Amino acid sequence: MSELSLNLDHLSKLARIQLPEDEKRYLSQQLQSIVGYCSKVASADVDHLEPMVHSFEHEGNVWAEDEIAEGDTVDFLSQNAPEIKENQIVIPKVL
Amino acid sequence: MDKYEVVIGLEVHVQLNTTTKLFTQVPYRYGEEPNTLVDEVVLGLPGTLPVLNKAAILKTVQVGSVFGCKIARKCKWDRKNYFYPDAPKNYQISQYDQPLCVGGFVEIELEGPARNIQGQHRKVALNRIHLEEDVGKLTHFGDESWIDFNRAGTPLIEIVSEPDMHSTTEVFAYLKSLEMHLKFIGASNCDMEKGQMRCDANVSIRPIGATQLGTKVELKNLNSISGVCNGIEHEIRRQIALVESGDKVVQETRRWDADKGESFTMRSKEDAHDYRYFTDPDLCPISLSESMIEEQVKKVPELPFAKQERYMKELRLPYTVTSVVCYDRNLSDYFESALQAYSKNPIAIANWVANDLLREMADKNTGWSALSIKPAQIAELVQLIDEQILSKQSAKKVFTDMFATGKNPRQIVQEKGLEIKVDLQALKKLCEEVIVAFPKPVAEFRAGKEKAINVLKGQIMRQTQGKVPVNMIDKLLLECLNA
Amino acid sequence: MNDLIFKPVEELIKGLQDKQFSSVELTKAYIQRTHAIDDQLKAFLSFDEDKTLKEAQASDERRAKNQCLSDLDGIPVGLKDIFSEKGQPLTCASRILEKFVSPYDATLVKKLRQSGLVMWGRLNMDEFAMGSSSENSAFQVTSNPWNLERIPGGSSSGSAAAVAAGEVPLSLGTDTGGSIRQPAALCGIVGLKPTYGRVSRYGIVAYASSLDQAGPFARTTKGVARLLQVICGSDAKDATSARRPVPQFLKEMCSFQDKKWTLGVPEEYFGEGLDPEIRASIESAIDFYRKCGYIIKPIHLKTIEYAIPVYYIVATAEASSNLARYDGIRYTYRSPRAKTVDEVFDLSRSEGFGDEVKRRILLGTYVLSSGYYDAFYGKAQKVRRLIHNDFMEAFKTVDAVLTPTSPVPAFKKGERTSDPLAMYLSDIYTISVNLAGLPGLSIPCGFTQSQLPIGMQLIGRPFEESTILSIAHEFERQHSFHTQTPQL
Q1: Same structural domain, B29 and B148
Q2: What CATH number should be reported for the domain holding residue B434?
Q3: Averaged over B237-252, what is the pLDDT?
Q4: Does residue C155 have an active-site annotation?
Q5: Mean of pLDDT over chain A
Q6: Residue C241: inside a domain, yes or no?
Q7: Would strands B91-94 and B78-81 be described as parallel, antiparallel, or unpaired?
Q8: Does position B175 have pLDDT exceeding 60, yes or no?
């Protein structure tokens, strides 16, 4: 891969991170060089291999019974939510 | 309108009625105080992890079996990444390229030429059924939106049809069939008003005879079955109008506004439709053995349409009755229980169950679990009538009593002295009187016109006030006429 | 009490048992030490002295009634600020979680409580575990106790520095690409990353889900073995936790004492870029093992050339998704400038995340994005399999692999901050171990001329922590590098 196009505007929209202009410039350069380094993987001969997502294969299935678990009553939202009304989280209107 | 063929595909999301959510053991119930059916996993707090609810998989296997799908021996979970305030993790755990069920069909029944004639059946092809977690609920007030995460994390099955429907009539039948089947096997209550069943439609048109599909438009916010049909109808007209005026249909997502009766281009949920799917590293793949799948398939009862065919053929029940009795699990189980107790008169039992029982339940607002009256008791009631111990008219009174008290019919009949007491002598005398009083029908009957007897019969029935079984009147009247 | 704070855990256990001191006295010694030096060292982000002393008090009360919960009952342990502890801050050294107080306990924290350990403080780290020096912390840079102008390593910076400096005898960190082993090496202590799945991840803020593991720091291998014992075990709340029985690590490692293992030495880990003093130190260690009767076998792990690219594709991809939940909506920092929902997302995240975190999220987004998935993420997952196979092939003929932990000793603050790639390269020896899911540890094996610690890494077969502990212990009991303490 010779020229990798990195559309930082597109990425920052997908990742929901707003970048000021000056940050964009150096970030773009840095990312370009990291991506360039990462494209080393292209040279590996691995088409015959299965992708590795998990470190080991479990035997059998991992799942839980359909039963209500005892939990601590969590007064969490009132402690940590930025804005809350009638126990619901408040945000600016979603259009 | 006649120049074009309409092609419709539906994506229906249905809430499975498991006790707990898909990836954590928090209960789900409709209508609770906001943000009370949550825990740290539901809210996506730092450090939390999902663990699969086994029942959700097993139920979905049952659903897949109902719709003739191929059940995957292996499937996995993927993350669908997008930012939206109702998504606690800003990704949804779903199934992308290895869904639990593939293919299949939904059998639908179209309306027949008359109310009492069965309409045509056809099978609408399905593409897949997969599991995913639901998101929270947003409500909008003025310049704010409020978020309630009670619904977040509930198991949803997404049923994706092929673009295999061609009219809103078929769409309606499809949704009704889905609802019936899912309720029948107890997988969901399918109440669209409670958000338990949600539907998006993909609509396109093409000139009749064309083989390529036209540009499709996705319609969202179709919040009721009638909304689905109205929204689709409107979209069809909109697309035809565009094409007729030389414009092109743009591939987009539109939001249906039921109040305004029109649709609007939606602001997209995420700026680019790039969900960046990848296998969720927090969850293990699922592996289902033949025996596991078999076990679930065995739990699926005889389905409504098959049951209906059987009732019509073997029990000789009319179509209209079967349409009531077969489509509801509670009702059909009840009916079959009654039938087991007394099998000689299925039509009578069906009528009691489909008409009187349901009416009484509605009037008295009684649910199935609160019923005092047992299936065997209704069977006994019919038997009493058949054995001419009880007249039909009196039987109605007995039924009302049974419903209220749960007592056996025999007991009630005895207590209230409702047995048919027929004074055969008096009846014979009455027959002879009526024969004398109506010579013309008598003559007609003796001349060969069999139906003339009905006039005489009617007279006797009126005078005996329905207390005498009809076949008894028949027998005696014939005897007198032939004497 | 200065000599008390540098005692290994074995002696502390004995001291408590023999009633030479109480847990409260012991804990106070560490608290005092922290007060004395942490303004300089900056290992701690926060601590709650009252709470800690209460826990120590409770331990003493249990001991008086002969109701100790474990051998480690009453011993203080420090926690990287990445482990969820009910009622305590959980910042991950990030502004976006600066005010967050967690409402639940991580499974690992529950286990610490169940064993009677006394929790002391929340330790500094690189933001969201992304970094190798603590310079990515939003709040402070931790210094290396051996030389305050240098970094202690990362991302479990505070966890390593605090143990090395005697602020706490035991601590816990997490390791995704070397974040326990590298700081252990740079600070001259023992650090172990267990096999993936040994320790429950429930309640540990996720960076890269398929690579993260929590692990212990201590002054000695026995200390590490003891703490490892407490935290291991399958967990119904973590579907990725291994459902294998947990051996008695201490017992097993001691039972292996006379074994003459076969150690693999991979040529590719001794190439250019390895500091000559570190090379000399490791070669000396290899000689030592040879003299002990171990078999030293040269092996090849050619896949090391792919380690960093694969890591930075897989880890950042997972991280970009794991960190999406920090969005200004429910419980994080919300930008006061945000007027619309879009701004709540965009501004809260832009203002709340540091540069390195943003870099990795953007990189992760890129490698998963449409059009690039196959070439990057799809490919990297297969290369990961190749790396795993490479190790498993080696393990057919060797019992453990011996390498340097870090190619360089502790570098100066600011030395690598302008070139992220240079920072990434300091993880070259440790990263493959996470990708392959193997257990790995680092023990002190020497010092540079300028008195900077050098660490040696041992990598084992899956679930064979006892083997590498035993091999490490053999070196430790015949050397005294681990007994040296910084002058701080």
Answers
A1: yes
A2: 1.10.10
A3: 92
A4: yes
A5: 85
A6: yes
A7: antiparallel
A8: yes
Q: CA of A33, closest CA in chain B: separation in Å?
A: 22
Average pLDDT score over residue span B343-347: 94
Residue B102 has pLDDT above 90, yes or no: yes
Which residues from chain C sit within 8 angstroms of residue A41, using beta carbons? 306, 309-310, 313, 376, 379-380, 383
Does the annotation count C260 as an active-site position?
no
Q: What is the model's pLDDT at position C218?
A: 98
The number of folded domains in chain C is 1
Q: What percent of chain C has pLDDT over 90?
A: 96
Domain count across chain B: 3
Cβ of A56 within 8 Å of Cβ of C327? The answer is no
Mean pLDDT for the stretch of residues C7-11: 97
Contact A91 C210 (CB under 8 A): no
Are the beta carbons of B46 and C369 separated by less than 8 Å? no
Chains that touch C (3 or more CB pairs under 8 A): A, B
- Examine residue C303 and state whether it is found in any structural domain, yes or no: no
Q: Which residues contact C236 (CB under 8 A, 6 or more apart)?
A: A64, B51
Q: Smallest Cα–Cα separation from C104: which of C115, C95, C116, C113?
A: C113
CATH classification of the domain holding C226: 3.90.1300.10
**Quick check: B282 contacting C, CB < 8 Å?**
yes
Chain B residues closer than 8 Å to C109 by CB: none
**Strand duo B278-279 + C44-46: pairing:** unpaired
Contacts of B55 in chain A (CB under 8 A): 65-66
**Which of C89, C140, C144, C139 lies closest to C119, judged by CA?**
C89
pLDDT band at A74 (very low <50, low <70, confident <90, very high): low
Q: Which of B83, B138, B283 is nearest residue A16 as measured by Cβ atoms?
A: B83
Domain boundary residue, one of B271, B292, B313: B292
pLDDT value at residue B59: 97
Cα gap B191→B37, rounded to integer Å: 20
C110 as an active site residue: the answer is: no
B282: closest CA of chain C, how far (Å):
6
Give residue B267's pLDDT: 55
Looking at the complex, does the CB of residue C377 fall below 8 Å from at least one CB of chain B?
yes
Full domain range(s) for residue B207:
4-292
In a domain, C245, yes or no: yes
Question: Which of B46, B282, B284 minimises the CB distance to C209?
Answer: B282
Q: Hey, are the CB atoms on A34 and C375 less than 8 Å from each other?
A: no
Looking at residue B53, its pLDDT comes to: 98
A87, with CB counted inside 10 A (0-12, 13-18, 19+), is middle
Contacts of A62 in chain C (CB under 8 A): 239
Helix (H, G, I), strand (E, B) or coil at B43: coil
Choose the catalytic residue: C159, C171, C179, C320.
C179
Instruction: Determine the structural domain holding residue C171 and report its residue range.
Output: 2-258+469-483
Give the H/E segment covering residue B330.
helix B329-341
**pLDDT tens per residue, range C189-203:** 999 999 999 999 999
Cα–Cα dist C287/C277, whole Å? 15
Residues B405 and B434 in one domain: no
**How do residues B219-235 score in pLDDT, each as one tens digit?**
999 989 999 999 999 99
CA angle C164, C166, C169 (to 5 degrees): 90
Q: Is the pLDDT of residue B236 over 70?
A: yes
